[in-house]
Amino acid sequence: MPGSTSPPYPPVPFFGPTPVMDALGIQPSSHADPLVVCNSDMIEINFYLTQKDTRLTHTFQYFDVSDGSISDIDRYVFLRSRSDAGANYLVRCPKEGFFIFSLYAADMGENKTIENGDKHSGGSTSLDCAFRYLIICQEPSANVAMFPKTFQKWHQCALHEPLAGDLYTSKLVMFRLDVPLALEVFVVIGLIWYHLRRKVGNSWEGQVPTGSQAGSATVYARFAGPERDTSLFSQILEYQIVEEVETEI
Description:
By secondary structure, the protein is an all-beta fold. It is built from 1 helix and 21 strands. The chain has one helix spanning 19-24; strands at 16-17, 26-28, 35-38, 43-49, 54-64, 69-72, 77-82, 86-91, 97-107, 119-120, 127-137, 149-150, 158-161, 166-168, 172-178, 182-189, 192-195, 197-198, 203-209, 215-223, 234-242. Strands 1, 3, 5, 6, 9, 10 and 11 form a 7-stranded mixed beta sheet that branches. A hairpin with a 3-residue loop joins strand 7 (77-82) and strand 8. It is globular. It starts with 15 loop residues before the first strand and ends in a 7-residue tail after the last strand. Residues 24-148 form the KY-like immunoglobulin-like domain. It comes from Elysia marginata. This is Kyphoscoliosis peptidase.
């Protein structure tokens, strides 16, 4: 009897590093092999950075073997922390199958574009694919939570909690995050602004009630700096507030 046919791999040009990695001094510190097998709820992928002005972005996609389609599922990957020395990504796989995590980078200090790898829009300078992982999820968790959405000012910040992007109504949620150069940090739900307290260094925290209505919770920060208007608040994170669904036992 003929053996069973293996599912096809995603139709992408390559997996692994490109010359962009060496050119920008980026090194994978957690997963040097581009093939990652996932049997748990979350994967941490870390990179070392050696250049201060390196800009990063990413994509996360699911490959459906049934019809060959590739779809974006960006809320299942999260840049948890970023500094001049490194970047820490959290990745969750919501189902069994093939996933593609791509890291894009550019040298913003010299405003140059490297002509290797795939292009990814990143303002006036295009970002090139530096590393691409193929993640194979064999045993997904029963309940895989999405992450919060990040905005441009999230650079140099770090999130400690909450990591789940969906928050339930009528809950008291602890927010803890690091926001360098912030003068004030607020969580905005509806028309109410909840002020987070500054702790040691760049750390901000506070307990926030999510309210009784579904909607969104947005984290805003007011930054210091010679080139910033200190009267302006910038979005850095956004959560969705949803109603908790009761399950029958």
